[in-house]
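hi support,

uploading two proteins for the ticket. first:
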Amino acid sequence: MNKLLVTGASGFLGWNICRAAKKEWKIFGTIFTQQCEIADVNIRKVDLTDFGKLKKLFQEIQPDAVIHAAAHSEPDICQKNRAESQKINVDSSINIAGLCADYSIPCVFTSTDLVFNGLNAPYSEEDPVSPVNVYGEQKVLAEEGMLERYPDTAVCRMPLMFGVSGSGATSFIQPMIKALKEDKDLRLFVDEFRTPTGPQSAVHGIFLALEKVTGLIHLGGNERISRYDFGKLFVETLGFSNARLLPCRQKDIIMSAPRPPDVSLVNTRAKALGYRPLSLTEEIKNII
C-alpha cells in the first residue's frame, strides 16, 4: 500500500481523514500536544515546527503523499498568540510544501473560508483574500508560501465543519450537544453565515483534491446557513424537543478575534471534479 502522511491526526479533520483512508493507504499520522490512537494508523509524536525533526520524519517514512491538516485553528487563540501560532500555521506549512517538492509527491493543505472578510459572499477561488483576524491572515500566508515553494500543492479552503471526532478534538457541535443535554440556553448568531459540511463530504473532497487538483479549490457545502438556523435544523433533526435556542448577533458576544459575517464558498469547481457534498440533514443524521 502507498504511504500517506497526515499531519494533525488528533484534530477533528485529521482524525476523520485517517479513519477514512486507512483501508486504501498505509497511514502515518502526526500528533504533538494531544494524545491519539487510531486503529491501523501509525501515530508519530513530532514537533512540526522543528524543521530538523520534520525532515527526519520524511526521511524515515518516505511518504507517497501528504495531507497537511495540523494547525492552531481557534481564531481567538491565534489572535492572542500570534508568534506561537505563526510557527505551525505558516512556517511549518511552507516547510512541508518544500519537502513535498523535494520528494515530488502530492501535497494537500487544508485552509479555511476565513481568508475572506465576509462582505462579498459567496466566494469563488478567483476572489481576492481579505482576512479580518490573525488566523485568516496566517492561512493566507501559508497558502501563498506553499504555492510559491511548491506550485503543485492543492490548497483546500474548508468551510465550517461538524461531526464526530476522536478524544483529542471536537467540532463546533460538541459544545452545542453538551448545552442541550444539560438543558441550557444556546445562543447562536443570526448574522454569521457559512456553507458547512460534515466529515464524510470534507474527506471526500480532500481526496479528490489529492488526486486531481493543483492550486486553490473550495470545498464548501451546498447550503448557506446562519449559525442560528443551523441550530434549529440540528435540534429538529436529532429530536431535542426542549431545546432553547436564543438568537443573537456577533456584536453581542465579546471575542478576541473578529469574525466575518458571511464567508459562504462557491463549490462549482470542486463539483465539476466529482465533489458531491451531502445535505446538512444527511450529515447531521450521520452523527447518530
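and the second one:
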Amino acid sequence: MLNVRGLTKKYGDTEVVRGLDLTVRRGECFGLLGPNGAGKTTTLRLLLGLIEPDSGSIELAGIPVPQRAREARMKIGVVPQMDNLDPDFSVRENLLAYGRYFGMSKAAVAARVPGLLEFAGLASKADAPIAQLSGGMKRRLTLARALVHDPDILFLDEPTTGLDPQARHLIWQGLRRLIAEGKTIVLTTHFMDEAERLTDRLAILDHGRIVVEGAPRALIESHIEPAVVEVFGEGVADWTRHHASKVCQRFENVGETLFCYTRNADSVIATLQATPALRYVHRPSNLEDVFLKLTGRDLRD
C-alpha cells in the first residue's frame, strides 16, 4: 500500500528527511515514531503529496506521489493532529459535507452516515453542534469522517493526544475494529503503549533517518534487557556507586532515579531490600525503554 525509496527533503541547509526507505503492506498497522524534530511531520506531508521531495520515490496505493497526489488522496483517509471539524455544521452534516468532497453522491454519503455514527458512538449526537462535543467525541468524529469514502489506507497523526484514558480506550477499540477489518493504517504517536498495542510493525525515526524497524515485541526483545528496576529515594547515589555495576547489566541515572536494566531482577531487589530508605518499581521492559535507548533522553524542541 505504501512504498518509499530514497526519500530526502531539505529546508535551507537542514536535511529533514535523509534517504528514507519505507514499506507498508496491505492490512497492516504501521507506526512511525520519533522525538520532536525527528522528521515525522515532514515525512507525512511528503507521503500525502502536500510538499515535494528533493529526491526519492513514493508510491501510495499504487499511485506515484506527488505526480498524481490528488488521485492518491482520493484513496486515503486522514486524521490530523488537530481537529478541523466544521463548527457551523452538526455531527451528521460534517460527515455529509466531507463525503461530497470526494465526489460521492448525496445518497451514497447518506447511506454510510448511520454506520459511521454507530462506529464513533455518536448516534445519539447526530444533530448536535460541534461545540457541544467533548474532546473524545470530536476525535471519534474526526476518525469517522476519515472513513466516509471507505479509503484504502488511513493516516492517523497522534489520534489520542490530549484525551483522557476512557476516550483513548474508545479510540483504540475503534482502531482495532478497523485493523480486524483489514484496513491499512499508518499511525504516528508519542504514546509508546499505544504503538505497542496497535501496530504490527513500526519504525523509529530520528534526525530524518530510520534507526530501527520491526515488530514491537521483537524490538523490545532484541534491544532491551527483559526487566527494569527503577530505584529512587534518599541514598540512591550511594547505592548506585556500590551496587549498580554488580547487579545491573546496564544502568542509567536520570535526575534522582536510577534505571537498572537486568536479566535477573531478583538479585537487584534482594540488594535493595537491605536499604529500606530506597523505593523501587519492578516492571518488564517496554517499547518506551527501546525508544529512549535509541533516541536519548534529552528534551527536544
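thanks. also noticed: Residues 165-180 form the longest helix (16 residues).
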